[in-house]
């Protein structure tokens, strides 16, 4: 009987297991294996290179800069997106006129593919684009945005937040709406102001969805690719060369697939370290 | 039974390891392509390129009429993503691509990687049907890998109304009296000062080697690649430095706009926002629908230097993973070696057919693509292909070269010091080519 149940369970699980193996495990193992090889076009043939690709990468200026840029980006973009999503979620769960309409407008960019969003923003950031038009109206000087080494990362963060905050906000709205009405009413009766209610009531009670949003947002931001490819190609001077784009560039533009696979392994390791760190921090809170 | 349950993932893992082990062994079986099975005589083949579908409708229609039973479906991949997507799909031995467009300088690396079918049996016919340059750029290691479909050149487009407003006499279409870049710059500034245009000069592909090579070559800077194996960077020559200093300064001074790239450049000219625009033969028709009044002149050169113009374009190649190589070959031959077929590839896009016979019929028509505006285009095209055309360098490392240089051009455009950036490019190229050697 138990055997039959096991078989049935396996039959149900099989498609998922096959997908897991084909789409996740095989490419992962393949990347690790291939990262130890190298290939010469002139000599022909694939040779075992050991840790050569890794040492080459670490010795390379571009890779080190790319890691630096990615870490800086991660440190900046995630808190900004999580805080903005949380504030918007709090705002849009208030009983106020038009809250639903605003909520829909904030969620709308999710429906736009990242590539299309990037194209829209490429026009906004143009020297004669919308952003400079607004600055001009406000009497402020025009800005170079994507063509300036010091503004490019910030410009990408704004664009990615435009795409992302609506999505993350949804999870937080769901979390806030799960807070029992009595708790909120009790806080109101106790005379807690809006700030006090947000910090002392809502924030602690949405900690779990907040933790999920932080981790998922971090992972998704570590894998940002389309806007970089379309808008900046990693420039100017490598200041927006995020790791995921660098991997793609090495693999398919430069054509050095083995070094790119070594970089993928490092990117995954970096992601794991950051996410593990976040879990540890969140657990420490409890 | 429980043991069997565990055996399944273990087997999957073993298979995964096996697959992973085989996964990367692609690519190096290059030059000794086995005699491929031509596949079925009838069916549907897939043709992949960057141009929009209308471009190839006439040639596909003509081919299908001539070859009943064979259908051709066209897939477009945008230019910006084309090379990378193709690398990805070809290295995965994707049989969903039968015929694809090959950028000529990339032939050697694509052939070396085993991404092209050897077409050497057509060598004699190809030699007789195309210019020596077109023939040579499609060969690598004494074999023929792709057939030239198009050729190109570049023109200096100018906004007649803006120049009139600035009281500047426009350049002539006579190649013997072509303007210098210095003249273009001065006239462009006058147009800006007169309030006739926002910008003085703009290039259609401001970060592409194809369009910027002539700047350095005009000053004797060379192609940027040297050495017996064509794997030694040479982008720090005086010519390259001077050319890039001039180029960077055009953006720093506001003569050309920063932050506009990709396919947003043409509309800047068509909207009347720039006095001079460097573009290809395709623009002869595209700008025809714009409201502004314009004309064409030959590509400028630097004072004291020599006139140099870009050349070359797409060729057609066959994917070795294709299971229908017989039909694919028929299509490739029709679109390139057959003069009528080759002409059909240029009936919606105004590009120059590579087939000499087709070219003879095509060039005289160029003068009338957009009425009086395109007057002189035919003579310019004929002159440039004979006297000033310089192809992009043939190197097995060209793909890396083009990618590294595109980033360098972008940075120089955005204000990075040209000398230090070219030095950096040399370092990057040396590093990228180390793995090839």
Description:
The complex is a heterodimer of chains A (286) and B (437). Helices cover 74% and strands 2% of the residues of chain A. Chain A has 13 helices and 2 strands. In chain A, strands 1-2 form a two-stranded antiparallel sheet. Chain A is globular and about 80 Å long. The radius of gyration of chain B is 24 Å and the shape is globular. In chain B, β4 and β5 (143-144) form a beta hairpin. In chain B, α17 (398-413) packs antiparallel against α18. Chain B has helices at 2-23, 53-66, 79-91, 107-112, 123-129, 132-137, 160-165, 181-193, 209-218, 238-252, 265-270, 283-286, 325-336, 339-344, 356-362, 377-387, 398-413, 418-434, and strands at residues 43-49, 70-76, 99-103, 139-140, 143-144, 147-148, 150-151, 155-159, 199-203, 225-226, 232-233, 274-279, 294-298, 309-310, 314-318, 352-353, 389-390. Chain B is built from 18 helices and 17 strands. With 437 residues, chain B is α/β, with parallel strands linked by helices. At the A-B interface, α1, β1, α12 and α13 of A face α1, α3, α17 and α18 of B. Chain B: Belongs to the bacterial solute-binding protein 1 family. Chain B: Residues 28-40 have a biased composition (Low complexity). Chain B: Residues 1-20 form the signal peptide.
């Amino acid at each position: 009987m138990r055997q039959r149940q096991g078989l049935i369970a396996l039959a149900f699980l099989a498609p998922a297991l096959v997908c897991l193996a084909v789409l996740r495990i095989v490419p992962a193992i393949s990347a690790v294996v291939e990262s130890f090889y190298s290939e010469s076009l002139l000599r022909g043939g694939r040779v075992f290179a050991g840790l050569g690709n890794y040492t080459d990468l670490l010795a390379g200026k571009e890779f080190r800069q790319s890691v630096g840029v990615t870490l800086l980006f991660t440190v900046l973009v995630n808190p900004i997106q999580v805080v903005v999503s949380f504030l918007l979620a709090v705002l849009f769960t208030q009983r106020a006129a038009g809250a639903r309409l605003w909520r829909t407008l904030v969620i709308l960019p999710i429906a736009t593919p990242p590539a299309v969003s990037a194209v829209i923003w490429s026009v906004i950031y143009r020297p004669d684009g919308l952003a400079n038009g607004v600055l001009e109206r406000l009497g402020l000087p025009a800005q170079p945005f994507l063509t300036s080494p010091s503004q490019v990362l910030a410009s990408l963060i704004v664009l990615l937040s435009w795409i992302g905050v609506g999505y993350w906000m949804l999870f937080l709205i769901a979390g806030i709406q799960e807070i029992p009405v009595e708790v909120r009413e009790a806080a109101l009766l106790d005379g807690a102001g809006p700030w006090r209610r947000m910090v002392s009531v809502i924030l602690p009670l949405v900690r779990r969805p907040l933790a999920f949003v932080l981790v998922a947002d971090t992972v998704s931001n570590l894998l940002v690719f389309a806007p970089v490819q379309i808008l900046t190609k990693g420039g100017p001077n490598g200041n927006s060369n995020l790791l995921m784009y660098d991997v793609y560039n090495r693999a398919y533009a430069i054509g050095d697939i083995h070094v790119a696979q070594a970089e993928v392994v490092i990117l995954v390791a970096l992601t794991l370290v950051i996410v593990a760190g976040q879990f540890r921090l969140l657990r420490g809170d409890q | 039974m429980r043991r069997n349950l565990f055996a399944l993932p273990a087997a999957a893992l073993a298979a995964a390891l096996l697959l992973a082990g085989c996964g990367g062994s692609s690519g190096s079986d290059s030059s000794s392509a086995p005699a491929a099975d031509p596949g079925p005589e009838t069916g549907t083949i897939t043709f992949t390129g960057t141009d929009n579908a209308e471009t190839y409708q006439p040639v596909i229609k003509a081919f299908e009429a001539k070859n009943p039973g064979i259908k051709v479906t066209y897939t477009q991949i945008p230019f910006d993503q084309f090379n990378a997507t193709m690398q990805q799909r070809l290295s995965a031995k994707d049989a969903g691509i039968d015929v694809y467009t090959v950028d000529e300088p990339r032939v050697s690396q694509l052939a070396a990687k085993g991404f092209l079918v050897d077409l050497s049996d057509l060598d004699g016919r190809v030699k007789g049907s195309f210019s020596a340059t077109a023939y040579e750029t499609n060969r690598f290691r004494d074999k023929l890998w792709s057939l030239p479909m198009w050729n190109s050149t570049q023109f200096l487009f100018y906004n007649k109304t803006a120049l009139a407003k600035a009281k500047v006499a426009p350049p002539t279409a006579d190649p013997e009296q072509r303007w210098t870049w210095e003249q273009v710059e001065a006239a462009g500034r006058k147009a800006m000062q007169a309030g006739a245009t926002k910008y003085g000069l703009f290039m259609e592909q401001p970060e592409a080697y194809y369009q910027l090579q002539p700047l350095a070559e005009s000053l004797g800077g060379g192609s940027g690649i040297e050495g017996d194996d064509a794997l030694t960077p040479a982008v720090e020559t005086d010519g390259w430095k001077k050319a890039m200093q001039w180029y960077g300064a055009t953006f720093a001074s506001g003569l050309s706009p920063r932050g506009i790239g990709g396919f947003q450049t043409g509309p800047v000219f068509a909207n009347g926002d720039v006095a001079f625009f460097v573009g290809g033969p395709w623009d002869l028709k595209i700008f025809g629908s714009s409201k502004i009044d314009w004309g064409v002149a030959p590509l400028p050169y630097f004072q004291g230097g020599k006139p140099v113009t870009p050349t070359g374009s797409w060729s057609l190649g066959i994917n070795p993973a294709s299971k229908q190589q017989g039909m694919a070959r028929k299509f490739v031959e029709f679109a390139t070696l057959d003069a009528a077929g080759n002409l059909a590839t240029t009936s919606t896009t105004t590009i120059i057919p590579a087939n000499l016979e087709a070219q003879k019929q095509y060039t005289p028509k160029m003068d009338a693509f957009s009425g009086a505006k395109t007057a002189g285009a035919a003579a310019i095209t004929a002159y440039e292909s004979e006297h000033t055309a310089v192809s992009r360098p043939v190197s097995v490392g060209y793909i890396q070269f083009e990618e590294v240089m595109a980033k360098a051009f972008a940075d120089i455009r955005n204000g990075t010091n040209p000398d230090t950036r070219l030095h950096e490019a040399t370092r990057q190229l040396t590093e990228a080519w180390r793995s090839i050697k």
